[in-house]
Design a protein that fits this description.
The complex is a heterodimer of chains A (247) and B (281). By secondary structure, chain A is an alpha/beta fold. Chain A contains eight helices and nine strands. Chain A has two domains: 4-86 and 202-246, P-loop containing nucleotide triphosphate hydrolases (Rossmann fold, 3-Layer(aba) Sandwich); 99-162. Chain A has helices at 21-26, 64-72, 104-114, 119-133, 148-161, 178-193, 205-211, 229-246, and strands at 4-17, 36-49, 53-57, 79-84, 88-91, 166-170, 197-201, 214-219, 222-228. In chain A, strands 5-6-7-3-8-9 form a six-stranded mixed sheet, sandwiched between helices. Classes of the chains: A alpha/beta (247), B mainly alpha (281). Chains A and B meet through helix 1 and helix 3 of A and helix 2, helix 5, helix 8 and helix 12 of B.
């Protein structure tokens, strides 16, 4: 049996919607009584094995982003437990999370340290990142001088070159011009072929089918179906059709 | 649970220095005299206070200090020197509290977008303020040497070394305070505004323009409870009073208790709010 690399155990996450700013201020000192809440994830459990590629489908607001944020370590669950064994690279918001006054090169190191990499290792992959991002001499300029396309390329290059154990990809990812887009797609395919665990979020059924043999369907924070991609997509479509008919 | 802040800092030291450096660049970049602004603003403030009290109101020209325990005869200083030594730590304290409360909000890209050791944000912004403080301290020390020589005293004094006792404590105390105030301000803008409003008044309640040792009765204790006085007096112990930090034990013990309290409270608040921060920012 393959070892699980990501496990979610009865994970729930509730966002508290404060009535107003006073209520929020009060909540600093007292627990709010019967607050309005939004359950973003409700008792979600699943496990993903090393090397598996899993698609995540669902409508807007189904909890996909919350789920991904938890895997990347940005958000935290209220209940339940999440284990992720390995480096996570996220191709989500590529322009975010840079220190703008630092140079591109320094940001590579910053990102590396956050991921717990050693100096030597970062030095090794540094050149790969720089050549992949096609930044040229700009690499030693502060990131604030970069265009948004350059920032995205750097963000992408860092994430794919750290040899992640888990790669989180949002299909709606924009990485600049067509030729670079192609390069990115190829790189993602290489990574998948190399046996990296991939989590793929998409609205596009075909691309999920192409990449992931397994898919999870989320609706209103709950896992509705988890299994073969074809089956999951069928459940998803049936539900959508039913919704349409109702209207 | 108690180690989470410590854990976030492990192996991140070099990055903290780099980020602190860049915080400074961010502040002073684009200005013609650049980092000199760090000195201009405090210098102007000092001038204004001196002008208002010594020249304008004509009330404060000399300050006489009677130290507790009578281990010394009374000191007499001109108001400018007395205030200057006390106000240098105040500049750091004010910035630490006001900026420290806002820090998480202004650095939210590290909290809501990527995984980041959040408590180090407080450390590197604090560190960048410490650099400015050290710069001001160099100017202060230059003035002190000038002051001593012009009064016929030797320029250096062994007690000057106490700076290396007070300054790290100053940094750590207000860092630990920001473990509480920063996440709370991130949560509620009202809390942030509360801190900013209170700070402008705290200056006058602290012994910076006057001698906090000069009180008796309940006020004496109120002064001892204010940690800002500990530092204002500490810097004066170092540069003016030739007095060891261990001499006034009551003051030292009260401060030590406050330091422990603030640290524990900071760890508690940070851990309580850390995981909710990405949701509210």
């Amino acid at each position: 049996m393959a070892e699980p690399i990501i496990t979610f155990q009865n994970v729930s996450k509730t966002y508290i919607l404060y009535k107003n700013d006073q209520a929020r201020f009060k909540a600093l000192f007292f627990k709010p009584r019967n607050p309005k809440t939004n359950k973003a994830l409700n008792n979600v459990s699943f496990s993903i094995d090393r090397g598996e590629s899993v698609g995540i489908v669902g409508d807007n607001g189904a909890g996909k982003s919350t789920l991904l944020k938890m895997i990347t370590g940005v958000a935290f669950p209220d209940e339940g437990e999440i284990t992720v064994n390995g480096k996570v690279a996220a191709l989500l918001e590529l322009t975010a999370g840079f220190s703008l006054e630092m140079t591109g090169r320094e940001n590579i190191y910053l990102k590396g340290y956050i991921l717990g990499l050693e100096d030597e290792y970062i030095k090794e992959i540094e050149e790969n990142i720089i050549s992949f991002a096609e930044l040229g001499d700009y690499i030693d300029q502060p990131v604030r001088t970069y265009s948004s396309g350059m920032k995205m390329r750097l963000g992408f290059a860092i994430n794919v070159n750290i040899e992640p154990d888990v790669l989180v990809v949002d299909e709606a990812l924009a990485v600049g011009d067509a030729s670079f887009k192609r390069k990115c797609k190829d790189k993602i395919k290489d990574i998948i072929a190399a046996g990296t665990t991939v989590l793929y979020v998409s609205h596009n059924a075909d691309s999920v089918k192409e990449i992931c043999p397994r898919a999870i369907y989320l609706r209103k924070g709950s896992v509705i179906y988890d299994g073969d991609t074809a089956d999951t997509l069928k459940v998803y479509h049936d539900y959508k059709e039913a919704q349409k008919k109702k209207k | 649970m108690f180690t989470s802040i410590f854990k976030e800092h492990r192996g991140f030291g070099k990055q903290i220095f780099l980020l602190a450096k860049n915080e400074l660049i961010k502040t002073y970049k684009g200005a013609v005299i650049g980092p000199l602004w760090a000195a201009v603003k405090p210098a102007f403030t000092v001038f204004v206070y001196w002008f208002a009290f010594s020249v304008g109101i004509k009330a404060l020209k000399q300050v006489n200090v009677h130290l507790n325990g009578l281990e010394h005869a009374a000191f007499s200083f001109d108001f400018f020197t007395f205030m200057f030594v006390g106000i240098i730590p105040w500049f750091f304290i004010q910035d630490s509290i006001v900026q420290g409360a806002k820090t998480l909000r202004t650095n939210r890209q590290f909290i809501t977008k990527v995984k980041f050791p959040v408590s180090t944000i407080l450390t590197y912004t604090g560190l960048s303020r410490l650099f400015v403080h050290l710069f001001l301290c160099v100017i202060l020390y230059g003035y002190i040497i000038f002051y001593r020589v012009s009064n016929g005293n030797p320029p250096f004094d062994w007690y000057d070394l106490q700076f290396f006792f007070y300054c790290p404590l100053l940094f750590f105390f207000f860092l630990a305070l920001s473990w509480s105030t920063a996440p709370m301000s991130a949560f509620s803008k009202d809390f942030e505004s509360l801190i900013v409003s209170v700070m402008s008044g705290v200056f006058w309640l602290s012994g910076i323009m006057y001698d906090s040792y000069s009180f008796t009765g309940p006020l004496k204790w109120a002064m001892l409870l204010n940690p800002i006085n500990f530092f204002a007096n500490g810097y004066r112990n170092t540069f003016l009073y030739h007095r060891g930090f261990w001499v006034y034990k009551t003051e030292l013990i009260i401060f030590a208790a406050e330091l422990i309290g603030v640290t524990l409270l900071g760890i508690f608040n940070y851990n309580r709010l850390r995981k909710k921060l990405p949701d509210v920012l």
